[in-house]
Design a protein that fits this description.
The complex is a heterodimer of chains A (166) and B (363). Chain A is mainly α. Chain A has helices spanning 3-28, 31-47, 55-75, 93-107, 111-122, 127-134, 138-155, 159-165. Chain A has 8 helices and no strands. With 363 residues, chain B is mostly beta strands. The chains are: A mainly alpha (166), B mainly beta (363). Chain A: This is DNA-directed RNA polymerase sigma-70 factor.
């Protein structure tokens, strides 16, 4: 990269990091893993900087595919890499319990289901856009979202009480 | 639906955003530097990510003949996008792997990989076939730079990155290695004792269980000055001078086969119209043969086949290819199948582990 191009890229990263990091964290549930996933995606963005029209969308696509690829390769084969548990900040006990329960539930979803839920309900993206980012049909997105929600509620029954409490 | 939405947002709020722009640029430079060090394209040409689980190597029914002794095969390669493909020796097809390949075992049944961008100091030894034995995970004392499998398949020698990478194409060399038991994952780290003014460029296993390091001085780190022979425990046994001249390239690091024949390491220097292959040893460098090189081409040896034949990697404007080269005639054989012309990195292995069904990939 030329210095001017690098400055453009760095400016993009500075502006896009808050949103992209939220996606990375929602996909991985861990600080270090989220940093690694986002950095990997940004490397690919940097390598293609002059060739892509929407670097934010491209970074999201890379993150989703890398997460799915990683999960297939390492998690499904039940290779456990020990990581220290994330430290949870001081919080009301109920909130902590819900987050832990949600994290455990998300960890038990398939990577594509989790990606669909993050795109649809964290990023509020329409089905057609989710389908484009994930490289599948809108019908697949709808079915994955439906199954993912049902599974999430089954694994994390506390979710229902959250809405009532708020 | 709002409960899920709220819960996901709460979860995402836990993350502490970090500005990773500079780190991403460093990572990109690191990748490109590796490509350059392996003699591949200096800047990756970017194409769409291959989505199919198998490469397009669909071949007609292969001849039912085993590979000949001394032949080689493209055991793994990175495509133009940097994605790695590993050869399944039973089927003769390359399958996509999410990790970066560092080395392939002599019998092609296992591969040493670095998981993608997750645990930079983690090395994994896994089967090349999906149904193979379980993965062995190894925590290294530093990030692996390259790895070579021992000829008996029991250990790996791993060159350790000395620290953060700086300029894009400046290779800082290394000073420390780790010897890893490929079955138990036990790690033994030691320094090569190179001091402040020397750095190692490559490390390989010799064919007698020793370790061989190409060593340069810090003022000209791209040119090996000496080949040093160590015991597997790290004791220096011998120091042999390297041939003088421009090195063919750093591609020897891509070879899974130690470039050693009967105890004599293979080195390569480049002239205007030919490359010269040398064996090194206590008596100094000796010419083993010469191969012609056309303008715009690079040719570099990646392993011995027999005393008169070497496997070489050739790069032309049209792409890369692997060949067998006859040192008596200076002629290159036909391009070996199984390696795309736009590959950016390649790991060459011995063809002994290929099944008869995949024997036509040998060269």
């Amino acid at each position: 990269m030329r210095p001017s191009t690098e400055q453009e890229f760095l400016a993009f990263v500075a502006a896009a990091t808050p949103a992209l990091f939220r996606v990375a964290y929602a996909l991985t549930g861990q600080q270090q893993a989220a940093e690694d996933l986002l950095q990997s995606a940004l490397e690919r963005v940097a390598a293609r900087w002059r060739r892509i029209d929407d670097p934010g969308a491209y970074a999201r696509t890379v993150m989703y595919h890398e997460q799915i690829s990683w999960w297939r390769r390492w998690k499904r084969r039940e290779v456990v890499v020990a990581r220290p548990p994330e430290r949870v900040a001081d919080d009301p006990a109920a909130g902590v319990a819900l987050r832990l329960s949600l994290r455990a539930a998300l960890d038990r979803l398939g990577p594509r289901q989790r990606a669909v839920l993050v795109l649809r309900y964290l990023e509020d993206r329409p089905e057609a856009e989710v389908a484009r980012l994930l490289g599948c049909s809108p019908k697949t997105v709808a079915s994955q979202a439906s199954r993912g929600l049902a599974r999430l509620r089954e694994l994390c029954p506390e979710l229902g009480s959250l809405e009532e409490a708020r | 639906m709002n409960d899920v939405r709220t819960a996901l947002r709460d979860l995402a709020d836990e993350g502490r955003p970090v500005d990773l722009g500079a780190a991403a640029l460093r990572g990109l430079r690191r990748r490109r530097r590796r490509n350059a060090a392996l003699g591949a394209a200096a800047v990756a040409v970017l194409v769409a990510v291959a989505a199919l689980p198998w490469s397009g190597l669909r071949r007609p029914a292969p001849p039912p003949a085993a590979p000949a002794a001394g032949q080689h095969v493209a055991a793994a390669y990175a495509d133009a996008d940097g994605a790695w493909w590993v050869l399944d020796p039973a089927t003769g097809r390359h399958r996509r792997t999410a990790a970066d390949v560092l080395a392939v075992s002599p019998t092609l049944d296992r591969v040493a990989v670095r998981p993608p961008e997750r645990e930079r100091t983690l090395l994994a030894v896994e089967a090349t076939a999906l149904t193979g034995p379980a993965t062995v995970l190894v925590r290294l004392p530093a990030e692996p730079r390259s790895a070579q499998w021992s000829p008996d398949g029991s250990r790996l020698v791993v060159a350790l990155e000395p620290g953060p990478v700086g300029d894009e194409f400046v290779d800082p060399g290394f000073t420390d290695v780790a010897v890893v038991d490929a079955v138990t994952g036990a790690v033994d780290r030691f320094g090569l004792g190179l001091g402040e003014l020397r750095r190692a460029l490559r490390v390989w296993w010799g064919d007698d269980g020793t370790l061989l390091a190409a060593v340069a001085t810090v003022d000209a780190v791209e040119v090996p000055r000496e080949f040093e022979v160590y015991s597997a425990e790290g004791s220096l046994r011998r120091r042999d001078p390297a041939p003088r001249g421009q090195s063919c390239s750093g591609r020897l690091s891509a070879a899974a086969v130690p470039p050693v024949l009967a105890g004599r390491p293979l080195a390569c220097t480049r002239g205007a119209t030919e490359i010269t292959l040398w064996t090194t040893g206590e008596g100094g460098p000796a010419v083993a043969g010469r191969l012609p090189v056309e303008p715009g081409q690079t040719v570099a040896p990646v392993g011995w086949s027999d005393p008169d034949t070497v496997a070489v990697l050739r790069e032309t404007p049209a792409g890369v290819s692997l060949h067998s080269a006859d040192l008596r005639t200076g002629r290159l054989g036909p391009a070996a199948p199984g390696l795309p012309a736009d590959a950016t990195e390649v790991v060459v292995g011995p063809a002994d582990g290929l099944s008869a069904a995949a024997a036509d990939l040998a060269f």
